[in-house]
């Protein structure tokens, strides 16, 4: 599968902000979560994301750094893995990705989970401004709960994803 941003990725990232923020506000704060993004990858390989911090995805895709983030590779998101963001950055652009995704927004703890719902691929991304070993443990061990939160958001946002 050849993945690429949806032709209107950057515009759609800021579309229906009221609805998007309403959905994310329902779950922000759970497990000390400060950031949630739901990314859909269609069968045709088009990437589209809705985010509680749209500036993060905007900068990542505007500067084409997303292609150095293994989170967007089929081998990762099709595997259903749950990974810490920093383990997914390719070495040649690691510092830039770490800065744009984590330092700039103050997210020392950040994880993503690849999943498939009814044949459609999704990536659930969660990050926290908090930092403790306990919080790392929660993000590592509460995978089923994180999956349920992501699925809740997908269901609530489903009408915003173009067909």
Proportion of helical residues:
25-40%
What fold name stands as the CATH topology? Beta-Lactamase
* Radius of gyration from CA coordinates: 14 Å
Low-confidence stretches: none
SSE order in H/E notation?
Answer: EHHEEHHEHEEHH
Integer average pLDDT: 92
Order of strands, main sheet, comes to 1-3-2-6-5-4
Structural class: alpha+beta
- Span from first to last CA? 18 Å
Total number of helical segments?
Answer: 7
Question: Which helices and strands, and how do they pair?
Answer:
Layout: E1 4-5, H1 9-13, H2 17-27, E2 35-41, E3 46-51, H3 54-62, H4 74-77, E4 82-84, H5 94-103, E5 109-117, E6 120-128, H6 133-141, H7 143-157
Parallel strand pairs: 1-3
Antiparallel strand pairs: 2-3, 2-6, 4-5, 5-6
Helix pairs in contact: 2-7
Defining key terms:
single chain, Beta-Lactamase, six-stranded mixed β-sheet, 6 strands, Putative FlgJ-like protein
Question: Could you describe the 3D structure shown?
Answer:
The protein is of the alpha+beta class and 163 residues long. It has one domain: Transcription factor LuxR-like, autoinducer-binding domain (Beta-Lactamase, 2-Layer Sandwich), CATH 3.30.450.80. 39% of the residues lie in helices and 22% in strands. It has helices at 9-13, 17-27, 54-62, 74-77, 94-103, 133-141, 143-157, and strands at residues 4-5, 35-41, 46-51, 82-84, 109-117, 120-128. Helix 2 (17-27) packs antiparallel against helix 7. The longest helix has 15 residues, at 143-157. It is globular and about 40 Å long. The relative contact order is 0.20. The mean pLDDT is 92.
């Amino acid at each position: 599968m050849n993945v690429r941003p949806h032709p209107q990725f950057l515009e759609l990232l800021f579309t229906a902000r009221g609805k998007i923020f309403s959905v994310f506000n329902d779950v922000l704060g759970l497990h000390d979560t400060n950031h949630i993004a739901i990314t859909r990858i269609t069968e045709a390989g088009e990437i589209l994301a809705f985010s509680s911090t749209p500036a993060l995805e905007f900068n990542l895709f505007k500067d084409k750094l997303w292609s150095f983030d293994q989170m967007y590779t089929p081998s990762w998101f099709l595997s259903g893995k749950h990974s810490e963001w920093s383990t997914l950055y390719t070495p040649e652009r690691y510092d830039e990705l770490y800065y744009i995704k984590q330092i700039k927004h103050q997210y020392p703890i950040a994880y993503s989970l690849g999943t498939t719902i009814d044949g459609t691929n999704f990536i659930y991304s969660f990050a926290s401004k908090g930092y403790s070993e306990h919080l790392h443990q929660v993000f590592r061990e509460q995978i089923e709960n994180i999956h349920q939160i992501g699925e809740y958001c997908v269901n609530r946002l489903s009408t915003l994803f173009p067909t």
